[in-house]
Every structure is written in C-alpha cells, then in structure tokens.
Design goal:
Rossmann fold, 434 Repressor (Amino-terminal Domain), 8 strands, eight-stranded mixed beta sheet, about 450 residues, Four Helix Bundle (Hemerythrin (Met), subunit A)
C-alpha cells in the first residue's frame, strides 16, 4: 500500500511524542533524526528532507514547544503541517473553462499508464456531470488506439480516432469539431510517449500544444519509479510546461518518495492519484488528507465521499428501517457487501478511519468477502431471509455449492449473528454509536472479535 513504510515509521515516532509530558532538546534532536531517516528511506530527495527537517526544528524551537504543556502534540502538529506543505499545501483541481470544451492533454513516458489513466479520468469527471470525449493521439505504439477504444467501450465514453493519418495536430483539431457537434464539454487527449525523453517527443507535444492550446497539460508518471518520476516531471515541465501531475500505481508505491518530492521540485501540484487497476481507481489528490493518512490520523472525509458515491440513498433509508425493526437478514448483508465493495478494498477503507491505522494485529483479506458472497449465493431465498433454519444438512449442501467447508459456514454464521447483535445494541442504545466512534477515534476499539471469524 501507498506510503506503507514511511507511514509505519512516522506513526511510531508520533506515538512516542504524544506520550511524553516533557520534551528535552535532545529528545527533539532524536525525533528529527528519526523523521529524517524515515523520509530518506521513503526515497524523498535529500535536499527536500534537509529543508523539511530545518523548518520543523525552527518552528519547534520558535514556538517554545519544549516549555508547553503538550509539547509532543505540538511537534506532531508541526510535522503534519509541513507534510501537508510538502505534498502541495492546497487542493488543486482541473480548471474547467466557462466556454466548453475544456481540453486536457495527457503526456508522459511509455509505460506510465497514460491510456488507462485517460479512461479513469474520463470516468471521474463524468461523475461530476461532464460529458467527456477521449481522443487517440498515440499513432505510433501498436494497438494504442485499440486499447483506448476498449477502455472507452467499458466506460461507455465516446472515443475519437483517425487511423488514416499520422498528423497528431490534425487529429486533435478534428476531435475539437467532433466534441462541439456532439456536445462533449471535455476533451481528453491521449498522446504518445517514448521510453525516454527526446527532442522528437517534445517537439510533437509542443506542436499539439501550439495547435489546440490545451487548458490543462497533465503529466502522468509512475510513482513506483521513485526519484526517476521526479526527474521526468522536472524535465517535462522545463521543456513543455505542465499544469499538474497524475501519479499512477500509488497503491504499489510503499515508499512514496515521488509524491513527497514532485511538488517541491517542479512547483506543479499533484492533481490526481491512481490507486488500483480498476477504471474507478482514481481520486483527486488532497494534501491534507494524505498527510493525515500517512500519520495514522485517518481520512474520514474520503470515507464519507466514497460512501456517498457507492450507497444508494433510497436503499440506505430502507436498510435503516430494517435495522430499526431488527429485520436485518442475509439478503441485506449481501446488499451491504456489494455497496461496500464499490468503495474499494476493505483494508484500504479501514486505514482511512481514525485510529484504525494503528491496529497492527488486524489482517483483513478481501478474498474472504468473495467466499462469503459465494456462501450466501448458494443459499435459497428462504434460507437468506430466515437463517435460523440452517440445520446440518442445509449447511453441508451450501458448503458443496460454494466450494467451502461446513466449518466456513459455521464461522460466517457466527460472524453474522455477532453483526446482528451489534446492530441491535446500537439501535437500542443511543449512546452506543457515540461510544463506538470514540473508541475508533482513540484507537482503543477492539474489533478483533468482529473480524476473527472472517479468517
């Protein structure tokens, strides 16, 4: 997962700080030393690390932190604030023009994931009420046009391509006319890349820039290449002039050096982060939220946004009534699982909840949810609605039908009964939810009993 190594190190440091009633100068130096090594291990540029540590030290000493009543918490706040600045400071979004179409030009090296990212970006902005058009401007890479067409078909997003010419500028101009006639208010140009930066590549991109005057030039870089990604960003920016960066494969970048260095080096913000293989796995980049995730403080705003996007409001109201009437059955359980899966992997959502990132002993295997789905689908409608009738012979039949064992069925049913009991307690006790959320926020909630039956 993204920033896993850095996050683990920094969370350990901040935990030590929060527990200290007093911090001496030697304590502060030791903390800064640990933070420095954590950042260097995360492949953050050495000069950036040096400046980062210097600023924290100046602020910590300048604010009389060592003499305050909560010095540990103040140092943690300073670290978080500077981490937010390092990641870009403020959110940076696409500037959609008042007179459409808005032209977005994606650039980058081969293998950075431009074509897939073009589809992901189209999918994301369509959810914002836009009507995008994908344009195949990579006329060199074999099957590049076909790949974009496949992506477009999967998303039901139109793709413009002209395989009769190699004139990329002409293709881009033709796409503008198509977009205007078809009422597409956003054009996404998927341009060609190279294995390395060369004069030919840059000249072609400059020609496109001059020919259609894109409103946004976004550089797509593979975050797993670490400092190479930063060097690529710096080179593209100096040659072409970019407006922002899209980091791909952030879910596989356990170090995070590219994300922590690119804004400082180029002066250009990270606008989006691709966090998985699905065409829905892209999100707007929020520096403050990312800093909170890295420090284990959670990212509850992103959880809420994902939930609002995934959950149908009408269905949610129906579910609420069922829970209140204590009629929550396996049909409802399956429906909730499907909604949860739309939000992403359970383990990734868990890390966004305040305090949950610190629970090291909890291992959630998302494949277990596939097993549960198979178990429920192997039941009859009567069994789903009335699980109490699941006797030994029924459980054996379900195990055979789902490719599991009777022991798996028993474990799942125990887990389901615990879920029912928890919901019953919450609906009967108005203070239960507040108490549970307080436990989550403080990192004291023991959810081992809830999850152990899923293993």
């Amino acid at each position: 997962m993204a920033f896993e190594g850095l996050s683990s190190r920094l969370q350990e440091i901040t935990r030590k700080l929060k527990g200290k009633a007093r911090i001496t100068e030697s304590d502060l130096k030791e903390v800064l030393r640990e933070v420095k090594f954590a950042l260097l291990e995360a492949d953050v540029n050495f000069k950036i690390v040096k400046d980062f540590i210097k600023v924290i030290e100046e602020k910590a000493v300048g604010q009389d932190v060592l003499k305050s009543l909560t010095p540990g918490q103040q140092v943690v706040k300073i670290v978080k604030d500077e981490l937010v600045e390092l990641l870009g400071g403020e959110d940076s979004k696409i500037n959609f023009v008042p007179n459409p179409p808005t032209i977005i030009m994606l650039v980058g090296l081969q293998g950075s994931g431009k074509t897939t990212t073009a589809g992901k970006l189209a999918n994301l902005i369509r959810k914002q009420g836009k009507n995008p058009l994908l344009v195949a401007c990579d006329v060199y890479r074999p099957a590049a046009i076909k790949q974009l067409q496949v992506v477009g078909k999967q998303l039901n997003v139109p793709v413009y391509a002209n395989e009769q010419t190699k004139d990329v500028v002409a293709i881009a101009k033709q796409a503008m006319n198509v977009a205007i006639s078809k009422l597409n208010d956003v054009i996404i140009l998927d341009t060609a890349g190279r294995l390395h930066i060369d004069e030919e590549l840059m000249q072609e991109l400059k020609n496109v820039k001059q020919g259609v005057k894109p409103h946004e030039i976004l550089l797509v870089v593979d975050s797993m290449t670490g400092q190479d990604a930063v060097n690529v960003a710096e080179s593209f920016n100096s040659n072409l002039g970019i407006d922002g960066v899209i980091l791909t494969k952030l879910d596989g970048d356990t170090r995070g050096g590219a994300a922590l260095s690119v804004k400082k080096v180029t002066g250009k913000p990270i606008k989006f982060a691709a966090t998985g293989e699905k065409l829905s796995d892209i999100e707007e980049f929020h520096p403050e939220r990312m800093a909170s995730r890295i420090l284990g403080m959670g990212d509850i705003l992103s959880v809420i946004e994902k939930a609002e996007e995934a959950f149908d409001e009408e269905e949610a109201l129906k579910m609420e009534q069922k829970i209140k009437k204590q009629k929550f059955d396996l049909e409802d359980y399956l429906a909730q699982m499907k909604q949860m899966k739309k939000m992403g992997s359970f383990s990734s959502i868990l890390k966004m909840i305040p305090g949950m990132g610190n629970l090291k002993n909890i291992k959630i295997d998302d494949k277990e949810f596939d097993k549960i789905e198979a178990i429920i689908y192997s039941m009859t409608l009567q069994e789903r609605r009335n699980p109490k009738i699941l006797n030994g012979s029924r459980r054996l039949r379900i195990a055979k039908g789902s490719g599991t064992t009777v022991q798996d069925i028993n474990k799942f049913m125990n887990s389901f009964e615990m879920t029912q009991q928890m919901m019953k307690k919450i609906t009967n006790n108005k203070g239960a939810m507040k108490k549970m959320m307080r436990g989550i926020d403080e990192g004291n909630l023991d959810i081992g009993d809830i999850t152990k039956n899923l293993k």
